[in-house]
Every structure is written in structure tokens, then in C-alpha cells.
Specification:
The protein is built from six helices and nine strands; from the N terminus they run ββαβββαααββααββ. Helix content is 25%, strand content 19%. The chain starts with 5 loop residues before the first strand and ends with a strand. Helix 2 packs antiparallel against helix 3. Strand 3 and strand 4 form a beta hairpin. The strands form three sheets. Strands 2-1-5-3-4 form a five-stranded mixed β-sheet, with helices on both faces. It has 216 residues and is α+β, with helices and mostly antiparallel strands. The chain has three domains: 77 residues, Ubiquitin-like (UB roll), CATH 3.10.20; 43 residues, no CATH class; 83 residues, Alpha-Beta Plaits (2-Layer Sandwich), CATH 3.30.70. The longest helix has 17 residues. The radius of gyration is 20 Å and the shape is globular.
Length: 216
């Protein structure tokens, strides 16, 4: 058995031992320190897109704001997860995401947690904040890669390559299960023509548990 190097960090005033290579977020969770996330899942490669997990990391006399899910903990590092600076950053991130997706329960819950009462931006009507978890799950867990990001900027959305119905999709529903917004459903996916099986294949639903399954 290979023994990994151990390091010592200080997180929110508490000295913690950690394995070299662990992310700050992993160390925090082991210490039962809450850091909010929207695009992180332990089964997926960390991506750091939502930036909600930012923390202050100090080392060698320098303090940086970093995404804790993709930043490895280093020996001697001092980490603060809930300073006023960090709370202000997270509050702005939630505010911007709420302006894009004002109807999502997960964002409303965070808004209540951070005391956000007003959205000073023009509101959209999107139901996806582009965390990328569905895309990564399809590629990393299922091994298919039937969906991905398309377009740029405010027009970015999740769809199959070139916007055409994907014959690679096996209808497993992994993308819908892992979606933190809980708005991606197979009914919606099929209705929006964003993830389709080939013409010679169908997706059925079990009459007992109502779970979707693929069939020929």
C-alpha cells in the first residue's frame, strides 16, 4: 500500500492534517466545515465553474481568493472559508445566478441563506445555470458524451453535438439525476430535442417504479 505524504494546514483557525493532493474543499468537508457548491460532485472531476466555493488561502505572506474544489491544500496554508470578503463574493455570485434563473429553488435557498432580498439586474427566464454536471456525468460516468456545451456567452446552453438529436444517448437518465437544479428531466430533454436516441431505439418507463429505461 502506497503511503501518501501528510501535510498540515490551518482552516478557520483549526489545525488539520491532510493528504498531499487533497483539495481544500475535501479537507474542509472532512473537518465538517460547510462550503457551498453548485458544480461539485464527488463522483466527477472538479471543474470550478460556479465559484461559489471560493475561500481565502494564505501562504508565504500572500492571500488569494481561490476556488476550493480545484485548489490543492499545501503544507502551511492558512485558509478562511467565511470572511466578509468571501461572503460578499458568494452573495454576488448567487445574485447573478438568480438574475439568470430566478425560479430555481436551490438558488432561492442560497439567497435566503445569504440574506439576498433584491436582484438589481434584469431577470431572465432560464432554468439552467450551466454547472456542467450533466455534461461531465454523461462523459465521465456513463462514458457516452451525448451532450455538451454549445454557443458562447449569454447564449451558452447544453445540447448534443451540432444541435442534432444524439444517437449516442442511451436514455439512462444520469444527467437528470445529477442535475442540482432538478429541472432537467427526460420528458423535457426529449421534448426540447436536446438528447435523443436513434430512430430504432426507444426509452420506456417502468410502470412500477416509474424509472426510465432504454430499449430497442
Amino acid at each position: 500500500m502506497v503511503k501518501r505524504d501528510r501535510i498540515t494546514i490551518t482552516i478557520d483557525g483549526r489545525r488539520r492534517k491532510a493528504e498531499r493532493g487533497q483539495s481544500i474543499l475535501e479537507v474542509a468537508r472532512e473537518a465538517a466545515i460547510e462550503i457551498p457548491t453548485l458544480c461539485y460532485h464527488e463522483s466527477l472531476t472538479p471543474w470550478g465553474s460556479c465559484r461559489l466555493c471560493v475561500v481565502e488561502a494564505s501562504q508565504h505572506g500572500r492571500t488569494r481568493v481561490v476556488a476550493s474544489c480545484v485548489t490543492p491544500a499545501e503544507d502551511g496554508m492558512v485558509i478562511k472559508t467565511n470572511t466578509q470578503r468571501i461572503r460578499d463574493i458568494r452573495r454576488m455570485i448567487i445574485t447573478l445566478l438568480l438574475a439568470r434563473c430566478p425560479g430555481l429553488a436551490i438558488l432561492k435557498n442560497y439567497a435566503n441563506e445569504f440574506g439576498i432580498k433584491r436582484i438589481p439586474f434584469e431577470k431572465g427566464d432560464e432554468d439552467c445555470f450551466l454547472c456542467g454536471m450533466c455534461v461531465r456525468a454523461c462523459s465521465e460516468i456513463v462514458g457516452i458524451g451525448a451532450i455538451g456545451f454549445a454557443h458562447r456567452g449569454a447564449k451558452t446552453e447544453v445540447e448534443p453535438p451540432f444541435g442534432f438529436a444524439s444517437s449516442a444517448c442511451i436514455g439512462c437518465g444520469t444527467c437528470t439525476t445529477i442535475c442540482p437544479a432538478r429541472t432537467l428531466t427526460l420528458e423535457k430533454v426529449f421534448a426540447r430535442q436536446t438528447m435523443h436516441r436513434g430512430k430504432d431505439q426507444i426509452v420506456g418507463r417502468c410502470v412500477v417504479c416509474e424509472t426510465y429505461y432504454s430499449g430497442a
